[in-house]
Amino acid sequence: MKKSSFSTKVGLIMAAAGGAVGLGNIWKFPYIAGENGGGAFLLVYLLCVLLFGLPLLVMEFMIGKRSGKSTYGAFRALSGTNRWQWMSWLCMLTAMVIMGFYFVVTGWCFNYLVEALVNAFSGLDSSALTEHFSVVSTNKPRMIAFTVLPVLLTAAVLWFDVNKGIERLSKILMPLLLLMMLLMAGRVLMLDGSNLGMQFFFQFDCAKLTSHVVMEAMGQCFFSLSIGLGALITYGAYMPKGQNIPAASLQVLVLDTLVAILAGVIIFPAVFAFGVNPEQGPQLVFVVLPAVLQQMSFAWLSSVLFFGLLCIAALTSTISLMEVAVAFVQEATADTRHPLSRRQSVSLVAALVLVLIMLCIFFPAMFDVSDQLTAGFTMPLTALCMAVFVGWGLPKRGEGSVLLHTKGTRRRAGQVFLFFLRWIIPLIILLVFLNGLGVLKF
Ligand code: TRP
User: Fold this and answer.
1) Are 263 and 28 in contact (CB under 8 A)?
2) In 3D, which of 306, 287, 280 has the Cα closest to residue 187?
3) Does residue 25 line the site of ligand 1, with CB under 6 A?
4) What is the pLDDT of residue 408?
5) What is the pLDDT, as a whole number, of residue 260?
């Protein structure tokens, strides 16, 4: 099997960052922060990013790079046993379930892009936009049409192999998205009442800090950084020689967090300026953003540009998600009597994803459950298991130390990293779980 590889180091960082930056930052982060008390959520979120983000990003990249395999083969290759194989399946299942609802939201973005093109939002106020969203999210044929489109686009990119497609796309468009968001933030901050939004988002109110907020913030941290399902293992396997993993991880982390905060700085001031409810859930950004864009100079162009870039940010994420599943299928079938080619794997995964999407469209409860189940449970759980795997499971003198003793790894840094994987990360995830389940109360 020909092994794909990213052609440049920057290419890998951009692809990984492109996978991390997506609807999680622009759609999910603001609405969950809005539901969970703004500033209190932000603080816990940042703590999670600091505590979990760097060690887990580094860990996943290293597992991938060391083993040269995707989630299916990585744990076996490193440990030399089959005992950890269930983690591969956990990764695969999580990726599939996330795709089920992620594509639906991507479909909404495509819907809004098309409407921005025909200038459908001009003159609509926030209550009209709320009404509009309920049409978009309940009209099933329309939802199906707009959701199938990104599935086909994602499958097409993977069909023609990872590196070329992903690299080229994210290298040019990510900075453009950042610029567009900066302009929007600038505009929003000039609106009357925007300071109340900044207070809501940046002021920490201890009374709002509950175990639910902590659970949600932790889940969001995993979701947004794309950790806890082996997406970065898959990318790590494609890493070019000599890539500095901690530096790459830090870049992905900083970029991802910046975009999330920037999204908050756009949404919350606008929420207060327009007098809408910050706790309205998944529809929040679809009500607020078109209204913000109407305030920009060159409103039509701004809307088209923004929703266009949002669609592309979503696509780079769906590409990374689907790549996890495709690489899994390819590797899992490689040694059987019916090895599937890359294109066959892409077709199989896309077909399965379409089934899951239909479930999410026809049973909206499934949409909510998928999100809760993955960000709230399987991703932190998988991350916990991977940390235990690397920290405790790998033989000390064998691959375990090899995982750390790559050229250029400083011993001190390696020890701190291992300490995090062994103690800090498993213990904190466990505590948050027990606390969330009400077994322990803080
Ligand atoms: N992190 C992406 C976002 O914030 C979503 C995502 C893409 C993801 N690929 C992933 C989440 C892999 C977990 C694992 O939108």
Assistant:
1) no
2) 306
3) yes
4) 55
5) 98
- Give the pLDDT confidence of 321-358 residue by residue, as tens digits: 999 999 999 999 999 999 999 999 999 999 999 999 99
pLDDT score at 1:
42
Instruction: Give residue 338 CA to ligand 1 midpoint distance, Å.
Output: 30
Q: What band does 73 get if pLDDT is binned at 50, 70 and 90?
A: very high
Instruction: Assess contact for 91 and 229: CB atoms under 8 A.
Output: yes
Neighbours of 225 (CB within 10 A): 32
Residue 53 in contact with ligand 1 by CB distance below 6 A: no
The secondary structure of 357-399 as a DSSP string is: HHHHHH-HHHHHHHHHHIIIIIHHHHHHHHHHIIIIIS-IIII
CB contact set of 425 (below 8 Å; sequence gap of 6+): 51, 52, 55, 56, 383, 384, 387
- Burial class (CB within 10 angstroms; exposed 0-12, middle 13-18, buried 19+) of 69: buried
pLDDT band at residue 318 using 50, 70 and 90 as cut-offs: very high
C-alpha dist (Å) from residue 214 to 37, 141, 251, 436: 11, 37, 25, 8
- Please report the DSSP string for 90-156 in residue order: HHHHHHHHHHHHHHHHHHHHHHHHHHHHTTTTTT--HHHHHHHHHHHTT-HHHHHHHHHHHHHHHHH
The phi and psi torsions of 419 (rounded to 5 degrees) equal -60, -40
Task: Please say if the pLDDT value at position 244 is more than 70.
Answer: yes
Q: Could you count the other beta carbons within 10 Å of the beta carbon of residue 229?
A: 30
Mutate to test the pocket of ligand 1, among 45, 98, 99, 235 (most ligand atoms within 8 A of CB): 98
Question: Which has more pLDDT, 6 or 31?
Answer: 31
Phi, psi of 408 (to 5 degrees): 90, -5
* Average pLDDT of the chain, as a whole number: 92
Beta-carbon contacts of 393 under 8 Å, excluding residues fewer than 6 positions away, are 79, 84
CATH of the domain spanning 9-370: 1.10.4160.10
Q: Which atom of ligand 1 is nearest to the CA of 229?
A: 14
Q: What's the whole-model pTM score?
A: 0.95
Question: Which residue's CA is the nearest one to ligand 1's atom 10?
Answer: 226
Under 8 Å between Cβ of 293 and 306: yes
> Is pLDDT above 70 for 163?
no
Residue 268 · residue 38 · CB < 8 Å: yes
Residue type, 284: L
